[in-house]
Amino acid sequence: MKYCSLLFVFFIVMACSKNQDETPLQNDSSPQNEDSPDTSNFIDSFDGTGPLIDFVTNNAIMLADVSRVSGRYHAVLTDNTNNKTLHFNENQGRLDAKLVAFPFEFIARNIGIGTVNNSQIAPDSDNNPYIFSGIQVHVEDFNSINSSHVVVGHRGPTNFTIEGKNTLNGDSTVNDIGANTTPNGRADIRIVGNENNTITVYWQLPNLSEDGTADNWTLYNETGNLPGTAPTYGDNVYIGLITYAFHSTGVPFVGTCDAIEIKQ
Fold first, then answer.
1. Residue 55 and residue 96: Cα distance in Å, rounded?
2. Which residues, other chains included, contact 239 with Cβ-Cβ below 8 Å and sequence gap of 6+?
3. What is the DSSP string of 194-215?
4. What is the C-alpha separation between 194 and 249, in angstroms, rounded?
5. Rg for the chain (alpha carbons), in Å?
6. How far apart, in whole angstroms, are the C-alpha atoms of residue 126 and residue 190?
7. What global pTM score does this model have?
8. Strand blocks (E) in 104-235
9. N or C: which end of the chain has fewer CB within 10 A?
10. Residues 202 and 217: beta-carbon distance below 8 Å
11. Residue 206 to residue 52: CA distance in whole angstroms
């Protein structure tokens, strides 16, 4: 998909001009309500340091320390007691999202995992942790456990990978694209919401170029489809960022993202 040159240049400049991480701030924002989706084109490059701006948050208590730090989404996961951050089967951790209408396009730049001291250095994969950050698409009703997600990180013995998951009525099906496919623990993720209310998933290694180099998207597992049966999505969905762990191996770590773009 082609972007207008002005939007593309602005996005690349903002995504590539990030500073080193600083001490994160606490974000205790509660869920917000929106009457209708935002139908305009939108870029959030997480400028500055402070709470996320104009996101709808589900289950904020599960992961309290989510904010903007030095121009990045910055989710610090230090406690996964009782798997409270997990997104799997009936578990629903924290989601920071926007309400969008089909058709849409959602891109997250340089999203994945980092250390607490530096979000741009991937945690090591010793002891095969399950730690991730990425994008989730959720039905409009947060009480309904139906979602799809694409996350970057370590998946046990499959390190430095991208995981895809469909959760249908609280029953999850999951796979990945193989080990060492994202050697820095981060990627660009693109989700296209189609006219028929289905989604197609793409990824690439982070495009951090400042010279306008074009994106080179790859379909998730050659089809763009996530495993299992996808939920039946209505005309509107919540789509946004998640960071989570399975058990406590690899904790603490940070979920990071340079910017998001929404086109409708």
1. 6
2. 97, 98, 100, 104, 106, 135, 136, 137, 138, 191, 193, 262
3. -TTS-EEEEEES----SS-PPP
4. 37
5. 17
6. 29
7. 0.87
8. 104-114, 130-139, 147-155, 158-168, 171-176, 186-193, 199-204, 218-219
9. N
10. yes
11. 22
